[in-house]
Amino acid sequence: MDSENLVKQELQKQLEKKHKFEDTVSSLKSLLQTTGICFMDSKIIARNNVPENIRTGV
Question: By CB distance 3.0 to 4.6 Å, which of 27, 36, 42, 54 could disulfide with 48?
Fold first, then answer.
């Protein structure tokens, strides 16, 4: 097998791994959102059981 095909196969494997990882992250985000935690700007913000002054930053 020539090197071009080997490279294509390796790239395909890496792409499949990336998609699996993204699916896992998406599933975890959905799971966390259903338990009252949401993601905003890469920060985790708990919506439940947080005093108002902490939530608003006042």
Answer: 36
User: Angle CA(41)–CA(54)–CA(25) in degrees, nearest 5?
Assistant: 30
- For residue 23 the two structure tokens come to 């699916």
Q: Give residue-wise pLDDT tens across range 5-20.
A: 999 999 999 999 999 9
Specify whether the CB–CB gap between 45 and 38 falls below 8 A. yes
* pLDDT digits 0-9 by tens, 31-52: 877 776 655 544 555 555 556 6
Residue 39 near residue 30, CB atoms below 8 Å = no
Hunting for tokens 């993601």 — which residue is that?
39
pTM over 0.85: no
Q: CB 23: neighbour CB atoms within 10 A?
A: 10
